[in-house]
Amino acid sequence: MVEGESGLLSIGPRKERPEYEPSLHRLTWKNGAVATLFSADEPNRLRGPQHDLAWCDELAAWRYPQAWDMLMFGLRLGADPRCVVTTTPRPIKLIRELLADPKVAVTRGRTADNADHLAPAFLDQIVRRYDGTRLGRQELDGELLDDMPGALWTHGLIDAARVATHPDLIRIVVAIDPAASSSETADETGIIVAGRDAAGHGYVLADASNRYAPAEWAKAAVIACRTHHADRIVAEVNNGGEMVEAMLRMTDPNVPFAAVHAAHGKVARAEPVAALYEQGRVHHIGAFASLEDQMCAFSADFDRERAGYSPDRVDALVWALTELFLEPHPGEGVREFYRQQATQNDTPPTD
Fold first, then answer.
1. How far apart are CA 296 and CA 298, in angstroms?
2. What is the structure's pLDDT at 44?
3. Domain 155-341, second-level architecture
């Protein structure tokens, strides 16, 4: 927004460009106008400051919706305070509310409209891969797409259970769905951190997924494990076999690890996890735009070739919540498992 190719320091006439003070998060123009930079990951920094104009970039990807609320409370100076939002449209509650507001003026732009300023090689590759796909319609054409018919999750379902904080957690795990290769066209490696509390509710804490080389995803997973004080890393080993554990051990020889094997298809594995969401037992701490988009496009007839990507973030989420809820483990996990079995069989539960 400030230093980018089309940032404020680049687009204005040279004699009228503002002075940028990164340490103060401030831009100052010669006419006395001042702009302050805020992070959407720190909503409370917006509590108090007043403004007459705001520019919000990628609002649909903001992790904490309350950052928007705090901004609105401070947008109160002058006779006509206004806000400009530039974002890829996603069917989340806030974007839908803005589009439905008669006071909001909507302008749409397609990637093709900006073709003169983009590298031909980029356009050729990105259009060839994503044109006509659901992701392409959203990212390239700026369409606001409704939830996929038949998807296991909906944005409304996820939004209804979204929370800002979590209680004490009795277990935390990091789940990995490693990519088979690390080329430029390779799939992402899904890395999801999730926890469970004593009341039987789950919480998605972080999404560290990205396109990594093997050593990089191993390092990212170990860092996530340490940061969130997880008690275990679980990883699918159907593709990587012993290599998955070996890469983790090279990063941290003592990291707690459990291998999981995909004995059933992706949909069969995901359906019990989707049921937990339907019961209101899984909550997202803030928003995870890329993960949630994959979830709401994942259905029984999901076609990787047609979609243009592999749902690696969803796979990692499923492994994490399966580990926390659907697999018996020593201690609390085993006791809960047998209590559930006893209830189903109408026999007295035992420890």
1. 6
2. 93
3. 2-Layer Sandwich (3.30)
